[in-house]
Amino acid sequence: MKVIKNYLYNVGYQVLAIIVPLITSAYVSRVLRPEGVGANSFTNSIIQYFILFANMGIGYYGNRQIAYVRENKDQMSKTFWEIQIVKTIMTLYAFVAFEIFMIFYTRQPEYMWAQSLNLIAIAFDISWFYEGIEDFKVTVLKNSLVKVISMIAIFVFIKGPNDVTLYIVVLALSTLIGNLTLWPNIRRDLNKVSLKFLNPWQHFLPMAELFIPQIATQVYVQLNKTMLGVMVSEKASGYYQYSDNLVKLILALVTATGTVMLPHVANAVSHGDMHKVNQMLYKSFDFVSAVSYPMMFGLAGISLTLAPNYYGPGYFPVGPAMMIESIVILIIAWSNVLGVQYLLPTHHQKQFTISVTLGAIVNLILNIPLIRLWGLTGAMWSTVFSEISVTLYQMWSVRHMLNFKELFADSWKYFIAGLAMFIPVFWMNTHLRSSWLMMGVEVLVGIIIYVGLLFVLRAKILDEAKGLIRKRIKG
């Protein structure tokens, strides 16, 4: 039940972390207009490269290392401070690199310096520690409060198209304050450690191993926005960002399992229980498949009217872009299970690194011709193909470790139910009058069709759900 509780906590926060910008973006898209939205998206994509350098692979590495030693508080305390020292030093280096970059970069300097607050905020991010000890309640409750306050601040202070800099500052400060709220709990959770017993640089090379896949991942997460801003327009970069925001909201419900399961699996690996690891993997893969298929087909079914209804006039290109990008919901869900929940905690970093590096290479190779030919649409298809390459390589890597028949046992049922749901929902979305009420009806119809067909096809996920409900009632 602890894993389920942590999953719900993490889902709650991941959804809030994206839903707050979504709530505000319906307002911001109209106030800042496509030009202001695009400027924020483009400059943020640049600062993310420096944040990547400062992070140095610590998210995955710190989470996993804390999970390995969390039953020994002295060792856990030592590990935390060693990793945090490395992170602080890398952040200082990253900021110096940013200052050098700004000597030569003259485009929108005011926006770029405002974005640099995000780089400062990353130095104080210790969420990886609480993920490692599986205490998601602390990070969720404190960061949720900060997110709500930032949402209020946006509605109060952002009033017109000239407030782009202020908007960037509000978002960055909310991240910084959210990170700082986690530090008071450290005194309770860690023992005192003498500096002379710390050896931070022993972690540097293992971090570097995970830094490479993070670089690759960031390339095909941020490169599309950067290249669209350079090759097409900043507005196109903003359209990509807004499509990505809605898709990432859906993905948060699925990929939250990765953050929760990584320390859980890592702890099982540290005890040598590989049978338990594999069984957790099969259940997790089945769960994300059951959830991802309807989310993929459902979002694709309503995307053409969702984007213009939500963001307002001038954002129609977001709809077709979202319909294409919805494909990655299923693909990333699978790669999250295979990569984050299996390859990383079982010490197969090399295979994980190769998979995301392959994705970055595919993305870079396809971006240039596809963006030149089709602009925003080309960037979306490049994203889809790069994610497919990541997942296919990971499947090939685990072909001798996992039983594919058990892994995909019910996947065909989810596909049939999802496709059967998509057809009427898409027809309703494109032929009936567009409104929020009608969209709600379309979503309800989709849910009824999908769940109904799962009962008809006797999907085993329903038995799992019934079992959990019984346990919850008895508990």
UniProtKB/TrEMBL annotation:
Pfam families per record: Polysacc_synt (PF01943)
Coiled-coil segments: none
Segments traversing the membrane: 7-26, 46-63, 84-105, 140-158, 164-183, 249-269, 290-311, 323-344, 351-368, 374-393, 414-430, 436-457
Any one Gene Ontology cellular component term annotated for this protein: membrane
Keywords: Membrane, Transmembrane, Transmembrane helix
InterPro entries: Polysacc_synth (IPR002797), PolySynth_Transporter (IPR052556)
Location(s), subcellular: Membrane
Chief subcellular location: membrane
Presence of keyword Plastid: no
Membrane topology summary: Multi-pass membrane protein
Superkingdom of origin: Bacteria
Protein name: Oligosaccharide translocase
